[in-house]
Design brief:
By secondary structure, the protein is α+β, with helices and mostly antiparallel strands. It has eight helices and seven strands. A five-stranded antiparallel β-sheet has the order 3-4-5-6-7. The radius of gyration is 20 Å and the shape is globular. The protein starts with a helix and ends with a strand.
Length: 220
């Protein structure tokens, strides 16, 4: 049975692409949808979300080729995405910096920030970052809700992702969160409402989330 499970796992690993998927709330999707409507790019399907980073990079490359057609505002937005998706677009990290790098980190710079990163095109790449998020929730934010009161939540965690040997990719992400205020109002946030630990104890204000994957790409 263990051998069968291992074979099934290896088959599933080989199906998926090497890179990670960009969250559906990322602003790059609105940007690409607008580029499609302006005929700057072609073939973009806004209904198939989320998309892998490599696919996003392919559409951004189309935009880069036609950047002379962009408005001043869209050209500035594209410049930000060129920095954020630099590694997927160009295979470089010239516009990135790590906190743990000796003497190179500048909190006020426009470069992409990492806790630590490493890139050797022939061997491996590694990106380590801290994650943080918080928001306040009230009736005015969710006017169609029957729940009264207000709430807030905070999330902190970390993420490690990378590739090795030009074929394998991996990601490990873990976060811890706390709710402050009305627990029912907090459930208006889908990630909190669906969290197992948060719903296990009716009095709990704590929730966490862990995800990870290992992928392989041999261009079969």
């Amino acid at each position: 049975m263990k051998k069968v499970l291992l074979i099934m796992f290896l088959i599933s690993v080989c199906i998926f692409a090497q890179d990670d998927y960009i969250p559906v709330n990322h602003p790059v999707y609105d940007f690409l949808e607008r580029m499609e409507s302006l005929h700057i790019i072609s073939g973009y399907n806004s209904f198939e979300l989320p998309k892998p980073r490599s696919e996003i990079a392919l559409y951004l490359k189309q935009v880069i080729k036609n950047k002379n057609k962009l408005s001043k505002e869209d050209a500035e937005i594209l410049k930000d995405f060129e920095t954020e998706f630099e590694f997927a677009l160009f295979g470089t990290l010239k516009n990135s910096e790590g906190i743990l790098d000796s003497g190179t980190y500048n909190i006020f710079s426009q470069k992409e920030k990492y806790l630590y990163y490493y890139n050797n095109p022939e061997r491996a790449s590694l990106f380590v970052n801290l994650l943080g998020e918080g928001d306040a929730i009230n009736q005015r934010t969710y006017a169609d809700s029957n729940w009264s009161g207000s709430s807030a939540y905070g999330i902190i965690g970390g993420q490690i992702e990378g590739t090795f040997l030009n074929h394998f990719g991996f990601l490990l992400k873990g976060t811890d969160g706390d709710v402050f205020g009305n627990r029912q109002v907090a459930k208006l946030v889908p990630d909190i409402a669906e969290n197992f630990k948060y719903n296990l104890d009716p009095a709990a204000a704590f929730f966490d989330q862990t995800e990870g994957y290992l992928t392989a790409d041999y261009d079969m």
